[in-house]
Amino acid sequence: MGSSVDDRGVSPVIGTILMVAIVVVIAATVGVTMLGLSDSARDLTAPVTYGDNLIENPAFEEGDANWQFVGESGNGVRIADGDGVGGSDAIRLQNDKDYVGQDLDSVLLSDAEYRLCAQSRLESQNGGRAWIGVQHDTGGGDIHLTSWEVTRTEYQNTCNYFETDREFDNISVWAYTEGDVSVLADEFVLQRTQFLTEAR
């Protein structure tokens, strides 16, 4: 008599445990499936670069070709042989108000997105600062389309995205210093980008 009562008491407990286990398995399966869908959706909105690099001689394989060097303190800007990324060449700016720039032949299209990338690092810094950027000379507001300050002592590839609200010509890519600082820059890239969800 007692054993039959125990059997009836155990059966609901086992059933409850099995139900909980099934629910947990279903929830885990749905969660993994939804995570996969979420990752796929995220990939669809990731920016994808396409087209050519608009910068000529971007990694200084041809020395200073296509670049203009200006140094108020003499020959402050120069090609740094073997000091670039992976032992390649780079440019070195090492005096106050040193400048290196390239005027592009390309026109930036209206209502488009672009990105500027460059590898750069500080060699030394004693209160000085260094920046990399791209600008236009088409009139209107701020001529700087994007720029950033070089702050790392090891090479870092920095990329900034920007959008154009109208067509821009007279485009210049540049690096510039102020004060007591020495900086290396290499592998410049300026490309148009496009989101997969906006592909046309």
Secondary structure topology:
Elements: H1 2-44, E1 47-49, E2 68-71, E3 77-80, E4 90-93, E5 98-103, E6 112-125, E7 129-135, E8 144-149, E9 156-164, E10 172-178, E11 181-195
Antiparallel strand pairs: 1-11, 2-5, 3-4, 4-11, 5-10, 6-9, 6-11, 7-8, 7-10
Describe what is shown at a glance:
This protein has one helix and eleven strands.
Number of helices: 1
Q: Any guess at the CATH architecture of the largest domain?
A: Sandwich
CATH class of the largest domain: Mainly Beta
CATH topology of the largest domain: Jelly Rolls
Strand content: 35-45%
Residue-averaged pLDDT:
81
Q: Which structural class do you get from the secondary structure elements? A: alpha+beta
Can you tell me the overall shape?
A: elongated
- The percent of residues in helical segments reads 10-25%
C-alpha Rg (nearest Å) = 28 Å
Largest sheet: 6 strands, antiparallel
Distance between the termini: 78 Å
CATH level 4 superfamily of the largest domain: Galactose-binding domain-like
Q: What is the number of beta strands?
A: 11
Uncertain runs: 1-5, 28-44
The tally of structural domains comes to 2
User: What are the secondary-structure elements, in order, as H or E?
Assistant: HEEEEEEEEEEE
